[in-house]
């Protein structure tokens, strides 16, 4: 097979390989190759068995699109390659950077086995991935993963192409039009990577970049330790089953289609629910409130009590923002900038509504059961003795909009012909617009069962096909150096509750739960006593972003965090205030080797904060002003978006960055300041990024594209740190 290439200008070299049994991987890989050529890359395209046509020792950038066939086997047109790969020894592929897109089907036992094996083998041979592996599932539709995976691969690819060329070139690269495009992609990529990082309510993952397209689970494997026996507050809202909303969408286009195609396969039935002991009744009273032992978290699960809750906003504010302090019996090891996870249960009335709609009796809800079966999802495997109530509270996600495969499953269990037809249509390629309109209303499982009441799915099928429950993550807003700091964590968040244009009320999982647990503290007030005697399941989030204060206290920091994005910076400031106190004591008693002025020991701390109205949502205002007065906070810049003519201000944080551009550049250039950005990934982070580029251009003398590259370099060097959420 001759390589396909063209005479595009040299801009990095890419080789796309495929292994395909029925043609999917081949056509997807061809598409990647063609797009690469269009983007100006020099690209080659080969079937894997033609591996010898390229010099593997010299290859620097490889993309593989491989399917799995048989019983987890590689396609026939790659067997020669696999034989060769098995024979290779050592780590001779250290130059090679690769990306793998696997195609498979979760209805088969060995999902995407070829891609997984290839990944492992290439790394054993010394190659390294430049982009996270994508695993596309034919059961739900390959395009769901393939399209975003390809789209987001370009900036990742551009990053290695650029770093190769700039390593060889001058420190201030002469950038081409292509590079300019690539650099824009990098910035977008960074936003994408970070957008899944931390949220004020939505689930967050710190899994590899591109988490949104990598459909693997099972990263959590540390089992619960030492928390059994503590009472936990389950969903407190109400024990009355909710009824669910009717989701109204227009099915008129259904009449135009007699044939439905690309219907996802119904996932295999593996799960069996067995009674643990027929005579055993579930625990009651305090016993019934234990933190279930089947919760799996990435770090040790701990139990927290609520110490205090402050409602930071008045009634007139658009959002209800709470600051909650949790207390612990044991010492915690953390740094300001770290985050923690809370394992919140689904709302109790939703859980009971779902169980009622699935025809589970009140008696059965509370019986102890065991989940068994070969090949059941990892998050269900530790359930050896739990009530269905707890399984639905803590193990499964009831609120994320359904995937097509779920809709297809519900269609199979609809007894009413019209309902079945509608569900099948939504699951098909032809019904994609209706499916999207349906999903846009964020239907819970209860809403689906309410809208299609003839659907009677066995409980085991529901449990094994729902996504796993995810913890919610929050930035820590306090310092371990403060009084009792090692025994408490604080966080700040907006209570997520809103209404859709259709009049449907939606709410988050964790934040309304915390609000209710603390009996909805009145607006603007702080409550420190009278909380229910309950413990909350929490754990430290592994810190992968290094979003922490620099160890050298003289390094200046520029903190940009409007709204609840200010949360980690409040922790930074408390920490610095405590560091200053400690130093002051030491200097005063003469322990300091020199009696230095306190300010010389600490670098500048500049904070850029943004709110709508100073009186309504200037969060942590008094703390900020105090820190400013004490000299902890060197500069405080507050943007106000909904008030006219605020002196020395602007509407948004980026406006203030522009105003202070020259001084910011000096702090960056002369004193090596670090930049921290926290908050909304889409609007704010993008505008701040643009403004920082302007600062580099206007005051640093960079070409625009060189400024983009410089900023990208800073991000890699952890000099420009971002903690963003979608
Ligand atoms: C006979 C057969 C066996 C398959 N076995 C597996 C398997 O073991 N694991 C898997 O993840 N997918 C399996 N699949 C699904 C394919 O990998 C998937 O449909 C893919 O899109 C096919 O891509 P291709 O056309 O490039 O071969 C199998 C498909 C067929 C038809």
TrEMBL record:
Keyword Amino-acid biosynthesis assigned: yes
Record-annotated FAD-binding FR-type domain positions: 299-550
One GO-annotated biological process of the protein: methionine biosynthetic process
Basic and acidic residues composition bias: residue spans: 190-200
Highest taxon in the source lineage: Eukaryota
SUPFAM superfamilies, per the entry: Ferredoxin reductase-like, C-terminal NADP-linked domain, Flavoproteins, Riboflavin synthase domain-like
EC number: 1.16.1.8
Molecular function terms from GO: [methionine synthase] reductase (NADPH) activity; flavin adenine dinucleotide binding; FMN binding
The keyword Membrane is assigned to this record: no
Annotated keywords: Amino-acid biosynthesis, FAD, Flavoprotein, FMN, Methionine biosynthesis, NADP, Oxidoreductase, S-adenosyl-L-methionine
Signal peptide: none
GO cellular component assignments: cytosol
Residue ranges of every copy of the Flavodoxin-like domain listed in the record: 14-154
A Pfam family that the UniProt record links to this protein: FAD_binding_1
PROSITE patterns the record matches: FAD_FR, FLAVODOXIN_LIKE
Coiled coil feature spans: none
Cofactor(s) the record lists: FAD; FMN
InterPro entries attached to this UniProt entry: CysJ-like_FAD-binding (IPR003097), FAD-bd_FR_type (IPR017927), Flavdoxin-like (IPR001094), Flavodoxin/NO_synth (IPR008254), Flavoprot_Pyr_Nucl_cyt_Rdtase (IPR001709), Flavoprotein-like_sf (IPR029039), FNR_nucleotide-bd (IPR039261), NADPH_Cyt_P450_Rdtase_alpha (IPR023173)
Region of interest (Disordered), ranges: 190-209
Entry protein name: Methionine synthase reductase
Native source organism of the sequence: Dissophora globulifera
Lineage: Eukaryota, Fungi, Fungi incertae sedis, Mucoromycota, Mortierellomycotina
